[in-house]
Recover the amino acids of this structure.
């Protein structure tokens, strides 16, 4: 599998750690944690023009999934030695379903804008069940674009287009930051330029 060069494993680890620490038990179901990461990335992308984790997103059966962050949450064998060592200092895996915080957040890793997005998402969605979060994340356009192919079972996952995160859901759910049309157009131009520059390095 080709490594996503933009992915920042320390941030992904601290984002998961942040959400675990918000829970009274200091642990979260892995599915819930990953849904919250997606929503935080959506918010931050729309407000600040980048994902917190810089991860690649895929449409899957239970909604959008940050691919490399999922490996961090699972302490997967796909992680290299430095990634697994760092993640294991902050997170432990319980019964392959829950992740638990082991240490306080390293605040030097998260920016003020990262924390703004994380706090907003926890306050808005932190009390939702796994079932509710899956249903909510199925309503955003970046996942809906791939719904038919995912439902057909012909594809287990499909890479999502970052630009689609800038579109608004049709249903009455939280947009994860309100965007003006002017701001949306400007951000789409930034994304196109960034993707073009990155393609030159492939």
């Amino acid at each position: 599998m080709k490594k996503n060069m933009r992915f920042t494993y320390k941030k992904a680890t601290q984002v998961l750690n942040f959400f675990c620490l918000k829970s009274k038990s200091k642990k979260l179901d892995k599915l819930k944690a990953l849904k919250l990461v997606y929503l935080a990335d959506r918010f931050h992308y729309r407000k600040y023009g980048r994902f917190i984790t810089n991860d690649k997103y895929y449409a899957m059966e239970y909604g959008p999934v940050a691919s490399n962050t999922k490996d961090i949450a699972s302490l997967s064998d796909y992680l290299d030695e430095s990634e697994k060592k760092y993640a294991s200092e902050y997170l432990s895996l319980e019964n392959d379903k829950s992740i638990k915080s082991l240490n306080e957040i390293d605040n030097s890793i998260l920016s003020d804008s990262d924390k703004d997005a994380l706090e907003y998402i926890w306050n808005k969605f932190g009390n939702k069940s796994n079932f509710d979060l899956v249903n909510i994340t199925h309503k955003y356009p970046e996942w809906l674009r791939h719904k038919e192919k995912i439902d057909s079972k012909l594809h287990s996952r499909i890479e999502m287009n970052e630009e689609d995160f800038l579109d608004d859901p049709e249903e009455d759910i939280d947009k994860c930051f309100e965007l003006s049309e002017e701001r949306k157009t400007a951000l789409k131009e930034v994304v196109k330029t960034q993707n073009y520059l990155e393609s030159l390095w492939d």
About this structure: The first helix runs from residue 9 to 22. The chain has nine helices and six strands.
